[in-house]
């Protein structure tokens, strides 16, 4: 009897306490439960081995030092499949050829659920970018495919080149910059141009505002905002405000278009012409802008860095683009004058400019006649894209390398397992676009995904990268310098613990550049 009276008194005291006290006690109780349950973890005969130590101590390393943490996990367990807890979420990490093949082909492993929980940097608006029905997700994927069809993509090329010219001219005749600032900013503009509206892409202030907001989402993604999204931390509050502002900018652009009654040749118009509901239109733009800009921006930043540090490959790329220009000069049908005027940017340059001449190269040439650029992009994504593929098992339990993957568990595969494997890529950290492809094993390269899950924006991303590289190698001379201004030796090394940009320490290097005699 005294025990029940004591509990009743404690309950009364808890309910009479202020919200702050109740909230704090609730969080403490929740973490205590997690700590206790994690200490009671037991492995069944088919279960992956648990990481040693309390699971709470695994949270920060997973989010802040992921590459080192996962490598430590494989070493600590001595297994190629192991598991750990992120609070109540079971996460299973897999590696090796057999596990990789199963991971990329298993029907029950869902990308959307895995990415949503374990990443957390996408602006989440219920019914717009999260908690989407399967049909709405499929429709967004279909619309992304529409953007990348031959005619829209061909018409987009002159606009992308004009954006590139304008921003590169803003760099001045010579100087230095951090590619993860300047090149990334350029890619963000190209992504805005490709996937949103002219109301946004033609307004530098609005583009800059969007970039700042998306940077807030990236920088504000902490273990707490991902695992405890209901916890009103300062980072979460900043993310919520940033998400609201992004939503307002996108919806305002839609309203401006609808009220103007003017039809434009851009992605927003395509979505409106298809009659898609507003939530699909907003979700398409909000979600794909950051997904496209982040991955392509990382690759572009490193591609320019590698070209600056490997002049022999820079020369090969320039020669290849020169050859494309020479061939296109003999192909009148590829001239911009054959492109409908409404597809051309308002300030399209005369054909003497590099951007205008590059616009004469047809899409099929950019895609089918650029083996050097293809090799450069492939090698860059191999050595400098710190992806960890994320899935959630929404199907029945399955086995990977004889280890059970329960329904509801999260499964991750680090790309470093294959892309930095010295058996497949000797001297794996070396940038060598001439190396042989690892075609003798399943999924020996997964830079754009694999199996049933491929990057749906691959075509657009590769075109953007090639246009940017072409403008840079013909319009500029550049090299890599260290923080003291001397030629960098050694060259910067990708930091796989930076899960967004693979970026070395800020300020550790720059690109020094000067314009060539070729007018942009």
TrEMBL record:
<feature type="binding site" description="axial binding residue">
    <location>
        <position position="455"/>
    </location>
    <ligand>
        <name>heme</name>
    </ligand>
</feature>
<dbReference type="InterPro" id="IPR001128">
    <property type="entry name" value="Cyt_P450"/>
</dbReference>
<keyword id="KW-0408">Iron</keyword>
<dbReference type="Pfam" id="PF00067">
    <property type="entry name" value="p450"/>
</dbReference>
<comment type="similarity">
    <text>Belongs to the cytochrome P450 family.</text>
</comment>
<dbReference type="GO" id="GO:0016125">
    <property type="term" value="P:sterol metabolic process"/>
</dbReference>
<keyword id="KW-0812">Transmembrane</keyword>
<keyword id="KW-0349">Heme</keyword>
<dbReference type="GO" id="GO:0004497">
    <property type="term" value="F:monooxygenase activity"/>
</dbReference>
<protein>
    <recommendedName>
        <fullName>Cytochrome P450</fullName>
    </recommendedName>
</protein>
<keyword id="KW-1133">Transmembrane helix</keyword>
<feature type="transmembrane region" description="Helical">
    <location>
        <begin position="12"/>
        <end position="36"/>
    </location>
</feature>
<dbReference type="GO" id="GO:0005506">
    <property type="term" value="F:iron ion binding"/>
</dbReference>
<keyword id="KW-0503">Monooxygenase</keyword>
<keyword id="KW-0472">Membrane</keyword>
<dbReference type="InterPro" id="IPR002401">
    <property type="entry name" value="Cyt_P450_E_grp-I"/>
</dbReference>
<dbReference type="InterPro" id="IPR017972">
    <property type="entry name" value="Cyt_P450_CS"/>
</dbReference>
<dbReference type="GO" id="GO:0020037">
    <property type="term" value="F:heme binding"/>
</dbReference>
<dbReference type="GO" id="GO:0016705">
    <property type="term" value="F:oxidoreductase activity, acting on paired donors, with incorporation or reduction of molecular oxygen"/>
</dbReference>
<dbReference type="InterPro" id="IPR036396">
    <property type="entry name" value="Cyt_P450_sf"/>
</dbReference>
<keyword id="KW-0479">Metal-binding</keyword>
<keyword id="KW-0560">Oxidoreductase</keyword>
């Amino acid at each position: 009897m005294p025990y029940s009276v004591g509990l009743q008194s404690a309950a009364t005291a808890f309910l009479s306490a202020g919200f702050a006290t109740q909230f704090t006690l609730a969080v403490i109780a929740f973490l205590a439960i997690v700590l206790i349950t994690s200490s009671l973890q037991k492995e069944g005969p088919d279960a992956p081995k648990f990481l040693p130590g309390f699971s709470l101590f695994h949270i920060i390393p997973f989010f802040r030092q992921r590459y080192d943490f996962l490598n430590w996990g494989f070493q600590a367990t001595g297994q190629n499949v192991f598991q750990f807890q992120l609070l109540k979420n079971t996460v299973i990490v897999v590696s090796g050829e057999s596990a990789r093949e199963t991971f990329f082909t298993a029907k029950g492993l869902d990308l959307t659920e895995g990415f949503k929980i374990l990443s957390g940097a996408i602006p989440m608006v219920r019914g717009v970018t999260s908690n989407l029905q399967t049909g709405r997700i499929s429709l967004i994927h279909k619309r992304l495919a529409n953007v990348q069809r031959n005619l829209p993509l061909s018409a987009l090329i002159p606009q992308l080149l004009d954006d590139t010219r304008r921003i590169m001219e803003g760099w001045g005749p010579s100087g230095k910059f951090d590619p993860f600032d300047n090149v990334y900013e350029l890619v963000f503009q190209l992504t805005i141009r490709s996937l949103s509206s002219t109301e946004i892409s033609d307004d530098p202030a609005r583009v800059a505002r969007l970039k700042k907001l998306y940077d807030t989402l990236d920088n504000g993604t902490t273990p707490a905002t991902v695992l405890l999204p209901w916890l009103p931390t300062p980072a979460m509050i900043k993310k919520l405000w940033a998400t609201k502002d992004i939503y307002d900018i996108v919806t305002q652009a839609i309203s401006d278009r609808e009220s103007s009654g003017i039809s434009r040749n851009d992605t927003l118009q395509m979505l409106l012409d298809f009659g898609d509901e507003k939530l699909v239109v907003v979700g398409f733009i909000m979600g794909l802008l950051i997904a496209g800009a982040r991955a392509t921006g990382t690759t572009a930043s490193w591609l320019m860095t590698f070209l600056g540090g490997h002049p022999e490959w820079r020369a090969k790329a320039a020669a290849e683009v020169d050859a494309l220009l020479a061939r296109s000069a003999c192909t009148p049908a590829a001239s911009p004058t054959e492109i409908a005027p409404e597809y051309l940017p308002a300030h399209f340059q005369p054909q003497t400019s590099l951007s205008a001449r590059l616009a004469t190269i047809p899409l099929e040439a950019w895609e089918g006649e650029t083996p050097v650029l293809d090799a450069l992009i492939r090698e860059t994504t191999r050595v400098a894209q710190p992806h960890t593929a994320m899935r959630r098992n929404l199907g029945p339990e399955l086995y990977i390398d004889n280890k059970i993957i329960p329904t509801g568990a999260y499964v991750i595969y680090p790309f470093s397992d294959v892309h930095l494997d010295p058996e497949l890529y000797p001297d794996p950290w070396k940038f060598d676009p001439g190396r042989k492809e690892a075609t003798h094993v399943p999924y020996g390269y997964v830079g754009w995904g694999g199996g049933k899950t491929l990057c749906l924006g691959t075509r657009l991303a590769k075109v953007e990268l090639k246009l940017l590289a072409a403008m840079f190698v013909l319009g500029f001379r550049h090299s890599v310098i260290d923080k003291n201004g001397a030629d960098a030796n050694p060259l910067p090394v990708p930091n796989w613990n930076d899960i967004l940009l693979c970026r070395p320490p800020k300020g550790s290097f720059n690109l020094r550049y000067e314009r060539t005699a070729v007018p942009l």
